[in-house]
């Protein structure tokens, strides 16, 4: 059986290396959002003015959900020179929320140059800023590190296909993956007793247990052997 040769880029994609790109994008996105929030908080602190407003609505989700956790928010109105009923809203801490009463007065700080930017609990505008930035940096580092590792492995796998030792191995089992059970990989063992696995793929690509397959191996054992179906046949 002959398999189409894969480039390093093709193998990188097959190994879902694009996931590391998503981590980098997520990290940069989180950092950008939190930096914007921090800058907004700084403007409110440095340029804002205080007025007495009115609580117009209170909402809470004490139990929250798996993604966001508990949340508490308040809607309010406050007077500005151009509009006596300027509206605003903010997510606040539980402690602050529990002090609020609907239709009661509330201290509001807003930007005179842009009344749409306001806060009733300014310190929470940039809540957990440094923690979020640390998470952002962590996501980028993991994404870069994982991506570079997979790129190196993809290049090495192509080199192994061209220059590695050709061995025969036997499929010893299948591992089905995911909740939908539509993907999986094969387990194999070669004639020297070395065991390995294939890259995750469609169940239709898995050969029956007991099948003979060709793998490319590193005689010095510096690199994991790879199935020719994952990287392509040599000829």
From TrEMBL:
Residue ranges crossing the lipid bilayer per the database entry: 12-33, 128-148
Domain of life: Bacteria
Keywords attached to this entry: Membrane, Transmembrane, Transmembrane helix
Protein name stated in the entry: DUF3592 domain-containing protein
């Amino acid at each position: 059986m002959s398999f189409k040769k894969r480039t390093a880029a093709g193998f990188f994609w097959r190994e879902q290396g694009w996931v590391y790109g998503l981590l980098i994008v997520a990290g940069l996105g989180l950092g950008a959002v939190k930096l914007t929030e921090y800058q907004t908080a700084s403007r409110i602190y440095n340029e804002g003015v205080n007025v007495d407003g009115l609580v117009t609505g209170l909402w809470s989700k004490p139990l929250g959900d798996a993604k966001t956790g508990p949340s508490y928010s308040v809607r309010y109105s406050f007077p500005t020179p151009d509009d006596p009923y300027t509206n605003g809203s903010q997510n606040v801490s539980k402690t602050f929320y529990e002090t609020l009463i609907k239709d009661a007065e509330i201290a509001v700080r807003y930007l005179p140059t842009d009344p749409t930017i306001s806060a009733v609990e300014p310190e929470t505008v940039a809540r957990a800023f440094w923690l979020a930035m640390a998470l952002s940096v962590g996501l980028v580092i993991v994404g870069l590190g994982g991506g570079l590792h997979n790129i190196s492995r993809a290049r090495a796998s192509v080199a192994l296909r061209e220059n590695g030792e050709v061995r025969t191995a036997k499929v010893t089992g299948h591992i089905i993956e995911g909740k939908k059970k539509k993907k999986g990989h094969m387990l194999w063992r070669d004639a020297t007793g070395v065991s390995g696995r294939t890259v995750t793929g469609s169940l239709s690509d898995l050969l029956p247990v007991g099948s003979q397959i060709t793998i490319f191996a590193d005689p010095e054992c510096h690199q994991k052997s790879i199935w020719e179906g994952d990287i392509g046949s040599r000829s």
